[in-house]
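User: I'm putting together a teaching handout on how multi-component assemblies are represented. Below are the sequence lines for each component of a complex, exactly as they appear in our records. Could you produce the 3D structure of the whole assembly as structure tokens, so the students can see both representations side by side? Please keep the chain order the same as the input.
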Amino acid sequence: MKAQVTVTLKSGILDPQGKAIEGALKSLGVAGIASVRQGKVFEIEITDGDRATAEAKLKEAAEKLLANTVIENYDVKLIG
Amino acid sequence: MKAAVIVFPGINRERDMARTLKLVSGRSPAMVWHADTALPAGIDLAVVPGGFSYGDYLRCGAIAARAPIMDAVRAFAAKGGLVLGVCNGFQILCEAGLLQGVLMRNARLKFICRNVYLRVERSDTPFTRGYNAGQVICVPAAHGEGNYIADADTISRLEGEGRVIFRYTSPDGTCAPEWNFNGATNAIAGIVNARGNVLGMMPHPENHVEAALGPTDGRALFQGLEVHLGRAA
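Assistant: Of course. Below is the structure of the complete assembly, with chains in the same order as your input.
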């Protein structure tokens, strides 16, 4: 089973990298960009178990390591 | 002072730290590998040094904070043992939950390596009894992620409980945006935990201890620890 964990900065946390990317996009002339926030995507393969177990494992992984919940939110998605 | 310096893959300041500890206390610290599960018996101080543990992968300090030895460091701190984290060590202690908050990318995205000025906010901690409150010291900083952030409640608790120990200031001790080079909240450069036995700081006091190499303002931190531990013994 494949899964995707997305980690993003909480709103209100300053994201200087996102700001720099936003500035670069604007200077490239890409129109209509209001703002950019940078995050991370983890593609994870789960060895076995049902969907509920997999989801619980992924949440554990996100809580224990993938995200720092002081500044980041995470989202777990099972794919196929 | 019997110290242990924790060594993670990618750390590069452990020998500077060991040299300073030997210089001040006359005793070489034990170098403890990250995969070990226990600290040497009878130590007074555990130091998490600076560098780039695990190449700063995922988040600075995130992987080192989950290394086997960190359970022993946590247990040591819980018993009141003194723990000092410098630079990557500060990041590791935050990731390990021994200190609150996070060190984010510097506000202007640059790695900054130069001497900076810190105002010592308190002299009545084990780590700062070698200084006077309000004294300004010059120590080197070398980091890309030193921008201290925590939620508003945590910041007001840190400030209210006097747990901000070092702040980035001008040479005469004035807080101003131009001296807060990494954009840290309230110009915070170093904090202690609620019990006051765990200190994390971004700049490197261990690198300003010998006159041949410039200022020696960092030395009093280690001398103060030595005095503190001498009195406690």
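A couple of points students might notice: Residues 51-66 of chain A form the longest helix (16 residues). The beta strands of chain A are 2-9, 39-45, 72-79.
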